[in-house]
Amino acid sequence: MKATRKLRIEQAADAIINFIKVNELAIGERLPNENELAEYAKVSRSTLREAVRMLVSINVLEVRHGSGTYVGPGPNETEDILNFGKIKKPLKLVQDLFEIRYLVEPTMTAKAARYITKEQVHELEDLAKKIENSIVNETLDHLDYDIQFHQVIAKASQSIAFYNLFPIIYESIVQYNKKYSSATIKEETIISHREILDALKKGDEIAAFDAALIHIINNRRTILD
C-alpha cells in the first residue's frame, strides 16, 4: 500500500473517531451511513471502507450485516495494538497468524455452535451467499463479507476472550487475501464456509470444530506449499 493511500486511510479513521467523540456516541450506537461518513471524512468510499476495516480490527467499530456500523467496545484510537504494521516479513506473519487461528478458532466455532441464535444463523446464511456471489462474479467485496462472517461466529461464541481475539482472525484474512486468490482457494472458501454454517445451524459442536479446523488446515497448506 502506497504511503499516501495509507495516510488517507489513517486520516479517515481519525475522522471517524473524532465523529464518535464530538457526537458523544456510546458503545452500541449506530454511525451514519457510508456516504455520509465519507463526506464527513472527505475521502472516497473505498478509502472509508479501509478505515472502517482498520477500526473493526481493534474493536473500535462493529459492522452488523444488514444493519450498519456501530461503536464497538475497543479503544478509541487507531493504534495498531498488535503491531502488525511494523512486521517486515508478511509471509511469516501470515503463517504465524494461521498458527494462532489453528489453536483458537476451532474451539471458538464449537462454542458458537452451542450458543448461536437464530438471528445469527440467518446473518451467516446471508453472508455466505454474498461471499459466494462475490467470488463467482469476481467482485472485491468478498473480503468484507468474509470478515463479517468470522466476526459473527466470534460474537456467537459468547466469549469475551474469543471476541477480543478477533483482530488476529481479521488480520490473517486480510493478509491471506492479499497474496492468495486462485480459483482453487476461492472454491475452498465457499465449500468450507458452507460446512461451518451447516454445523452451526445444527448446533453440532464437534462438526463445527472439525469444519473450522479443516478450513484453517487447507489455508495453511496453501501457504506452506
TrEMBL record:
It comes from Falseniella ignava CCUG 37419. GO terms for molecular function: DNA binding; DNA-binding transcription factor activity. Residues 6-74 form the HTH gntR-type domain. Keywords: DNA-binding, Transcription, Transcription regulation. InterPro entries: GntR_C, TF_FadR/GntR_C, Tscrpt_reg_HTH_GntR, WH-like_DNA-bd_sf, WH_DNA-bd_sf. This is HTH gntR-type domain-containing protein.
